[in-house]
Specification:
The chain folds into three domains: 144 residues, Nucleotidyltransferase, domain 5 (2-Layer Sandwich), CATH 3.30.420.40; 98 residues, ATPase, nucleotide binding domain (Nucleotidyltransferase, domain 5, 2-Layer Sandwich); 69 residues, ATPase, substrate binding domain, subdomain 4 (Actin, Chain A, domain 4). The chain has eleven helices and 18 strands. A hairpin with a 3-residue loop joins strand 2 and strand 3. It starts with 24 loop residues before the first strand and ends in an 11-residue tail after the last helix.
């Protein structure tokens, strides 16, 4: 009989913010990063959704920031993985372990006073995927778990009055997915999701450097390049960037310079996919809502929306005003936190 897989922790101790009782939390469980908001406190954790563990012992070595440093640098017996893919759980066991470790980083979970937890999930998540999120959170020490769609959380975090009958449009670009949604009366009335986002853009940079420069780079290097000079629209003040990697012809270290124009060309396809999806959602949206969106504009959130000039590109292609939220990286967890602080007011937005 096959032994049931289980990953154990080393019993590590984190400095907890509160130790007497478990405090309620909101969690943006993302493909790239996980953020936790604690009731009455605010955001208490923002770390990569990465787990490093020993394959032989099935023992966790690190989670979050420390685990990310293992990516691309692990010996054969160590795995550094992102347990979520395209916004949903790809590895249940590792995800459960990661959630538990993140909980322990911010507070001691009481077996008696279990915290209520609000968790963001992609719009259009399947029942099976919902069940996996609920089970992972509950097995990690959560009490009641409430699920909220990411575009809805983004709208709340952006300060929109989601209870209004008018249409409001949100584009949320994360690490694994991009979601476009039209909201009205505390509901998602029209939405679409594609598995193209920040990670896909990084992958396109990796492919471009291999094809055009014979240079092999890792995921982290590609991401740094994207942040430094990546853009969807020509912007001022962006210069060349030096990328370090391995020369595939001579099999030795190599440094090359790339320009913003080259990177813009490299990522054209995923950027176009995001814009085209926004257009498709607008085509399917009722005329009355289009009038509202034309007046108020499109809201953009999520780390992927920080790609230079992206909101300007969306604005030009759709003909609608487009603006970033005040802090796109934290808007979704902030919105989830607001829902957590006002559970009765926001009962209609939960999709359990």
């Amino acid at each position: 009989m096959k032994k049931k897989r289980k990953i154990v922790t080393k019993g590590r101790r984190y400095r907890s913010l509160f130790n007497l009782f478990s405090k309620d939390m909101a969690m943006d469980l993302g493909t790239a990063n996980t953020l936790i908001y604690m009731r009455g406190v605010g955001i208490v954790l923002n770390e990569p959704s990465v787990v490093a563990y020993d394959r032989r012992k099935d023992e966790v070595l690190a989670v979050g920031n420390e685990a990310k440093s293992y990516l691309g640098r692990t010996p054969e017996n160590i795995a550094a993985v992102r347990p979520l893919k395209d916004g949903v759980i790809a590895d249940f066991i590792v995800t459960k372990t990661m959630i538990k470790e993140f909980f322990l980083k911010v507070q001691k979970i009481s077996p008696i006073f279990k915290p209520k937890v609000v968790i963001c999930v992609p719009a259009g998540i399947t029942q099976v995927e919902k069940r996996a999120v609920l089970d992972a959170a509950e097995e990690s020490g959560a009490g009641l778990v409430y699920l909220i769609e990411e575009p809805m959380a983004a709208a709340i975090g952006a300060g929109l009055d989601i209870s209004e009958k008018k249409g409001q449009m949100v584009i949320d670009i994360g690490g694994g997915t991009t979601e476009v949604a039209v909201l009205s009366r505390s509901s998602v009335v029209n939405s679409a999701t594609i598995r193209v986002a920040g990670d896909e853009i990084n992958e396109e940079i990796v492919k471009y450097l291999i094809k055009e420069k014979n240079l092999q780079v890792g995921e982290i290097s590609a991401e740094k390049c994207k942040i430094a000079i990546g853009s969807a629209y020509q912007v001022e003040g962006v210069s060349k960037y030096s990328v370090y990697g391995k020369d595939l012809l001579e099999n030795k270290p190599k440094e090359v310079e790339v320009t913003p124009e080259e990177i813009r060309k490299a990522i054209r396809e995923p950027v176009s996919a995001v814009v085209e999806m926004a257009k498709r959602v607008l085509v399917k949206t009722a005329p009355e809502f289009i009038e509202d969106i034309k007046r108020d504009g499109i809201i953009m959130a999520g780390g992927g929306s920080l790609l230079k000039g992206l909101h300007m590109h969306v604005q030009e292609e759709t003909g609608l005003k487009c603006r970033l939220t005040e802090d796109p990286l934290t808007t979704i967890v902030e919105g989830s936190g607001i829902a957590l602080e006002n559970l009765a007011k926001f009962q209609k937005v939960f999709i359990n």
